[in-house]
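Handout, section B. The chain below has 275 residues.
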Amino acid sequence: MIILNNVYYRYEPEGIDALRGVSLEINNGEHLALIGPNGCGKTTLIRHLNALLLPFDGTVDVEGLDTQKPRSQAKIRSLVGMVFQNPDNQIVGMTVEEDIAFGPENLRLPMEDIKKRVAESLERAGISELAGRNIENLSGGEKRLVAIAGVLAMQPRYIALDEPTAFLDPAATTRVLDIIDKLHREGVGIIHITHNMAEAALTQRVVVLNEGRIYLDGTPKQIFGKAEMLQKIGMHLPQVTQLLIKLKEMDLPVRTDIVDMDEALNQIRILAAKI
């Protein structure tokens, strides 16, 4: 479990309070979406999960390890992998294999173990065919998957992803989301920052940040069922939720807490049969 207890963080010298007393528990194997308006503290929060940032006040505990203790930080960073919004910020190798091998090489593992980890990570990320490719010849979506594979080579229990589908075309987005779902089914904990409410609706749990504080926390149905609270802070709703709200405004007897398109269509079919 990852436990944040009353975490405060300020960016100096700007004096910007990015986190203001955040308390949050994240279970191993959980798939959590982190959403909220721009500037609400999402990226700042996930950078606390593997000690890239340290709280000004409060504590972050990862599997019993305090992020503020230097002797614990290497272990914490192997437990919590980070995939940045821009994969170029973390890709260091000339080729795909070289980049994925970078982390295990820094652990000073035997060469045979490094090769095994690289091959396994390529397969888990679904990019074995890219192994010998030059990084500069990859698409944006392929680079995202290489960044994920590089993190997987460290064998983390959790992966925090900062808008992993931003600026990708629909095909690349689907591919990245499929890999994230696959990793979750394998038992990896996923913390997923997104501005896409349809993506958030696919997770187990949604945490909404606003002005550096936890604003809402619950299942997708619970969160998107609170349309007025989300709209109050400038958040958009999933399209399926917007549709059901419009039908509700027409005095039709529909539920508005549905986030699954198939479930919504089934409800509409039942309603149409009664009219």
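Note. The first strand starts at residue 2 and ends at 11. Compare this with the example in section A.
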